[in-house]
Each structure stands twice: as C-alpha cells, then as structure tokens.
C-alpha cells in the first residue's frame, strides 16, 4: 500500500511541475536570436554519361550568342538508323504511234507505189518509206530525203540501184503532185551527214548498201521538174 501511495504522490507532483517547466522552455526559445535562412540555389540536373561520370546540364543554356564556342547545339544522332525514303519511280514516256501517211511515192520504172510516212523513225521505216523531217519539204528549195529499207520490212528500195538518169519519180497527195527526174547515184559512208542545203529543189532516196549490209548508204539523187 505504501508503494501505491508513493506512486500517486509522484504522479501528482509531475502534473503540477509540467506546466511550469513548459513555460520556462518556451520563454528560453523566444529569447534566442533569429537566423535567416537563404533560399537554396537551383541545382542543375545531372545525368550519367556513357562513361559513367556525372555531367551537369545547364538549366537555361545561353543560346543568344551562336558564335560562343562553349555553346553546343543539338546534333542528329548517327547511331540511329532511319528508314530510307525510296525515290519515286520515273514513268517512261509512252511510245508515240507511227504517223499517218500523207503522201504516196511512185517509181514507174520499178513498179513501186508506196505510202510515205512523216518522220524517219524505226517504227515508220518498218511500215514503209519515210520522209526525214530535218530535210526540206517536198517541192521546196533544199534537199528532201526519203529513207527506206532494202532487204527487210517489205524491202521497198530493194532495186533502186537499177534507176538510171532520166527516170521519173512522183510524190503526190490528193491536192498536188511533185515530179522529179533521176540525176545520178552516189555511195557514201553510213555516218554521212548533210545539212540539206541546196540552191535547187532536190530529192534523195536513201537506203543501205550493199544489200544485207549497213556499212554504207546508196543515194539516188533527183531534181524537181515540175509540180501540178
């Protein structure tokens, strides 16, 4: 019973002493000088470089002066494979259809009567004799040239080497007829070129020479006699 009485006495004593002790502690704190704490400086974020070292990244990099050697601008990554953009496929031009025949070539001495196509393209030459567009028009001053195959695609000029001076050659359509007279023959190299200039109205028939060979060209040279 004595211990219980002693414990009660101690508890009551502490309850009476606690308010007085708390007052003393608060009074002591109020008498201490006040110290101002500075605001911490913002710390730049850090990253680990591939080597494992810490590198600082500026919070606001100075990019106002591009010439500053300390400023490093972002560069594209070379280790990233980017898909290549395929180049657009070029669309080949559509082949032009052969031109329609506008004139007829007649050589009475050889029994030839064939349509003449405008433009000595391979497609036209496969169809028949063709007028070279770079040459002079029919009946006008200059050299008008008509080319034709000698052994293939119907061989329209197979026997033009048999033509003799004075033979008649006619170029006609529904409106006009040009009458040429054979003057002579001439063999030239395959790469022979002419500017088609002449002071007279001439017609040249051109084909391969000799037959079954393209080493040379045979030219039948004619001169305009009249048109009607």
Walk me through the structure.
The protein has a domain at 101-227: Sortase, Chain: A, CATH 2.40.260. Helices cover 15% and strands 29% of the residues. The protein has helices spanning 2-30, 122-127; strands spanning 46-48, 54-56, 101-107, 112-118, 130-131, 142-147, 168-172, 177-189, 201-209, 216-227. The strands form two sheets. An eight-stranded mixed barrel has the order 3-4-5-6-9-10-8-7. A two-stranded antiparallel sheet has the order 1-2.
Mean pLDDT: 77
Largest beta-sheet details: 8 strands, mixed, barrel
| CATH homologous superfamily label of the domain at 101-227 | Sortase
Percent of residues in helices: 10-25%
Can you tell me the CATH topology of the domain at 101-227? Sortase, Chain: A
CATH class of the domain at 101-227: Mainly Beta
Number of strands: 10
Radius of gyration, CA atoms, in whole angstroms: 54 Å
Residue runs with pLDDT of under 50 for 5 or more positions: none
Separation of termini? 162 Å
CATH architecture of the domain at 101-227: Beta Barrel
Shape: rod-shaped
| Order of the strands making up the biggest sheet | 3-4-5-6-9-10-8-7
> Helix and strand string, N-terminal first?
HEEEEHEEEEEE
Q: What is the strand content?
A: 25-35%
Helix- and strand-based class?
alpha+beta
Can you count the helices? 2
